[in-house]
Amino acid sequence: MKNYYWIILCVFCFGCLAPKTFFAKLENTDNDLLNTVFNSPSNYNLQIIYSEIKRNPDGTVEFKDHFYHVDDNLYFYPASTVKLPVAVLALEKLKELREKEQLQISKETPYKIEGDSLTYTIRNDVEAIFAVSDNDAFNRLYEFLGPDEINSKLRTKGLSPVRISHRLSVDDAFNLETKAISFYEDKDDITSLVTLPNSHNSKIEELELKEMKKGIGYFQNDTLINAPFDFSLKNYFPLSVQHNLMKHLFFAENYKLSSRFNLDSEDKDFLFEAMSTLPKDVGYDEEEYYDSYGKFFMFGDSKQPIPEHVKIYNKVGYAYGTLTETAYIKDESHNVEFILSATILVNKNQIFNDNIYEYDTIGIPFFAELGRTIYAHELEQNIK
After folding, report:
1. Beta strand 223-225 pairing with 217-220
2. Which of 282, 104, 121 is nearest to 187 (CA)?
3. How far is CA 195 from its chain centroid?
4. Long-range contacts of the stretch 55-63 (C-beta < 8 A, 24+)
5. Residue 4's pLDDT is what?
6. pTM of the full structure
């Protein structure tokens, strides 16, 4: 809460941040939390996209986009940000199965994964993905869709380049075979409504981008390998695509029908609620999972409650020293809304898999201050 009041008090400090040279002005700020990174952005592989949102009297929406060192060909590991499109596509696939296959299944329908005795629902999976970035929930939805379907659908909607090729934090992450999924009448009914068979997916090709091999070493099975870490088979979800995905979701009317996600209003409302929900709101312990656990812009460096009138619809990801977030931030009380996406590499020793990264000392404080600065700029623009 203290950080939020700091924003209000400092609005007038950012009047010099003219939109035309927004990031150039930020680079010259005397703010230590920002300077650490802006003084050497290439060392941090820093990329940022900020979109101002203008709502016209006729109901149309326009964006004024600001880009900082954005390069789709410069690879960064997207980590858990890939969970956002997979969650959306899972909801879309359920709707398609109802419409095209006449299957009576929904996000509340219990299901089981081949080889797993536990029962799940896609509703709970989506909630867990956004509340605490649950890897198991993502992996189940990955089985439900399969990488070929995920990538094909995203490209069809104009969300490319992209390549989601593996599960997260499991031994068989790159297995091309997905598992069969059975949906049931209820969790205690052993009679299956439908079983979706497993699928075999395309071979994973090596990515040919800049900096596919990073650092000077990495740990493998507790052994230090003195060679760069190779990311060429990993997921690829560049910042421009993440940012455009947020536009597609929240401003679908700006896109032709073929580029929109096929979600009914109830599922869309559910998705948006899940994206903005705080962990405590879906039953997680707020001491361990505080409000900003998965919301780094504006509030990431504080464990204080996020003000109720500030809604952050987002997805973060962090692994291998790379921290990424894409967010639609809205404060109706002060007529503020904007889209912000950023990625940063904080791995000073250039060793991967050693769990020695500067998330808490550099990455998250930078994201929090960046979000607060842009929020303050938005407030200042409203006062003019």
Report:
1. antiparallel
2. 121
3. 30
4. 60/253, 60/254, 61/251, 61/253, 61/254, 63/247, 63/339
5. 53
6. 0.94
